[in-house]
Amino acid sequence: MNKIWYILLLAMLAACSSPAEQENVQNIISSVQKKYAPDHREALFQVTSEKKGSELILKGETNLPDAKFELMDTLGDNGVKTVDSIEVLPQKQLGDRNWALVNLSVANIRSNPKHPAELATQALLGTPVRVLKKRGGWYYIQTPDNYLGWVDSWGIFRETEAGMNQWRSAGRVIFTADYDVIRTEPDTKSQPVSDVVMGSVLVQTGTHGKYAEVSFPDGRKGFLPKSELRNFTEWENNVKPDREGICQLAHLFVGRPYLWGGTSPKAMDCSGFVKTVYFNYGIILARDASLMVRHGKPVTMKNAQPGDLLFWGYHGKNGPRVTHTGLYLGNLNIEHSSGRVRLSSLDSTKSDFFTYDPGYLVGMRDVIDSVDTKGIVSVKNHPWY
């Protein structure tokens, strides 16, 4: 009888991990997450541990294979035996079609897979995205700036790696006008196929006088004036973010409405405005103001130049919390999206003086002289394009 109780006691002890072991496992998970996925907006690493009997089961998902490898390796080095139930995205059920191209003039990307969810960001027609998982009629995607979110199935056209390579080698064009309508015939009175905004990428499949025939990712075709298009390869290799040009382009958007999550010439939030301007000069910036401020060369008002970015915020628990950004124009003048895209002054004697109440100006960043550093990537050097 005593032998039976002894065996049962050993089994109970084996089934229970000590608090110290549990804490060690959680610390290792947190350390890997902090290293590889410090911000959930740009990387996914959701891993938990659960003890079942004598087994420690790791559950969750990540889009970072290296992070999972380091986690398992570190746990092994610490003598922790685990059962691996961590899924590395893309989901297997997606098959080999785990890439996509945006198939609408502007695709809405939300924080959750439902239409009432927060608008997190947007992506323009022809933007390449990584497809990570599917839930119902929604896809969890990552945009070229690393931002993560959900898009409905109408917003994208899924592709294989081979399909993406074919797209990259096709006769791509970028739409450089402000706005137009792609039509079924080379005639402004013909049926619309879709609207199109500055920065959209299509494939040119032919010409008809002053018009170019263009193709959508899903194969639809239509016509646009050739004068509004530029060869994409030529554009990405030659466009350069000069300070005067950046400011001139920004002025085009004055008066456009503010939209939380807006990232297109139609409507934009503060960081969406800055991103839109810079993308049309061949530069991909991080999505949110609080992400943008982490990149680029710090500058002060004393040595600031037109085209530099300004960041406002307030005091948080761990230092400044950035919540607003704008474009510096020189001579204490700025342009930003707040209510609408507008011009303001940092000169308190001016009628258009802007103060971020109750916050303050956190700092400024030079991105033009920091191209192809982390968070400031040229389109020509982005592997997805």
How are the secondary structure elements laid out?
Elements: H1 2-15, H2 19-36, E1 45-52, E2 55-62, H3 65-77, E3 82-88, E4 99-102, E5 106-110, E6 119-124, E7 128-135, E8 138-142, E9 148-152, E10 156-159, H4 161-168, E11 172-175, E12 179-183, E13 192-197, E14 201-208, E15 211-215, E16 221-225, E17 229-231, H5 232-238, H6 243-252, E18 263-264, E19 267-268, H7 270-279, E20 283-285, H8 289-292, E21 297-299, E22 309-316, E23 319-330, E24 333-338, E25 340-345, E26 360-366, E27 376-378
Parallel strand pairs: 2-3
Antiparallel strand pairs: 1-2, 4-7, 4-10, 5-6, 7-8, 8-9, 11-14, 11-17, 12-13, 14-15, 15-16, 18-19, 20-27, 21-26, 22-23, 22-26, 23-24, 24-25
Helix pairs in contact: 2-3
Structure commentary:
The chain is an alpha+beta fold. Helix content is 22%, strand content 38%. It has 4 domains: 14-88, Histidine-containing Protein, Chain: A (2-Layer Sandwich); 93-166, SH3 Domains (SH3 type barrels); 174-233, SH3 Domains (SH3 type barrels), CATH 2.30.30; 243-381, endopeptidase fold (from Nostoc punctiforme). The chain has helices spanning 2-15, 19-36, 65-77, 161-168, 232-238, 243-252, 270-279, 289-292, and strands spanning 45-52, 55-62, 82-88, 99-102, 106-110, 119-124, 128-135, 138-142, 148-152, 156-159, 172-175, 179-183, 192-197, 201-208, 211-215, 221-225, 229-231, 263-264, 267-268, 283-285, 297-299, 309-316, 319-330, 333-338, 340-345, 360-366, 376-378. The protein has a 6-stranded antiparallel β-sheet. Strands 9-8-7-4-10 form a 5-stranded antiparallel β-sheet. The chain has a 5-stranded antiparallel β-sheet with strand order 16-15-14-11-17. Strand 5 (106-110) and strand 6 form a beta hairpin. The radius of gyration is 25 Å and the shape is globular. The model is unreliable at 5-16 (pLDDT under 50).
